[in-house]
Request: fold
Amino acid sequence: MPLAPGVVLVTVPGGGLAVRTPDGTFLRVDTAGTEPHAATALLTGRPAPDGAPAAAPGTRPGPGPGTRPAVDSSPEPDPEPGSDRLTAAFAEAGYTGDTPPPPLTGRTVAVLGDPVLTAPLTRFVRDAGGLTRTVTPEEAATLDGDRTAVVWCLDGPVPPGLWDDADRLPDRGTAWLRTHREGAHAWIEPPATGPGDVTSAHVRLRRLAATPAHRELAALWAGHGTPDNGPRHSEASAALTAALLTADLLAWAAGAPPAVRRRLRRLDLRDLAVTGHPVLPVPDVAPLPAPASGAVPPTPAPAPAPGPAPSVRPA
Reply:
């Protein structure tokens, strides 16, 4: 049985046999008396290097030099003590076995948005074994299934109300991922994989609460600004954004721990610096009561007095 991907056996001079795990950890191996080169051949199915004797599975060590081999009339050779235990221990630890399928095998990722981002994302998803399909905004809002994800990529701001319908996808078990650009920053929002996760509406509310310029930011999102003219995504920033989205898809396929579903990332397109920000869903609250009938309307505020000359300062 072959070694699992990323597992390496290391014969340490004077130190026996060690195994390097896929995450880079070195572990010493108790070979139960089997010579390290022979144990390596046993676990890999390859000849022992440097002419060292290799113990085949289920056989005894060969005779020493200058002796005639003993004749064994039994139907099957006696297993070598320790060889079965050694192979069983490696299998139990997950260090041997066939190559596992790609992580997105059996998953469907519906992609829509700007091609500068959807093109690399589609390649990365297919490399990870996932199926991709291009959908319209209307189709995206109707998808259903716990093995389906929707990824919406924008190389610009989000028009008002564009993502409202898609925010309901997690309630049906469909994963919901998205990214957009505001000026020189791309925002990669956390994946929402089920009811109660962070949606795009939650991200907006949290961002408004975190800035003193909440009125200005809300006005910008509502479309009361001049067109956002860049800088647009470069090939490098688009590939990095697609890679971060793919990482979130891999986490979704593996179960998406809360740390992933509560992480908002900002990518600076000028230097490709990525910063992470924790974000929580916003709980529902009761609506404000309606004003009582016959209530006196508020008095209009007087017109402001002429102010100082125009200037640009932080909000």
In short: DSSP finds eight helices and ten strands in the chain. The beta strands are 8-12, 16-20, 26-29, 108-113, 131-134, 148-153, 175-182, 185-188, 263-268, 274-278.
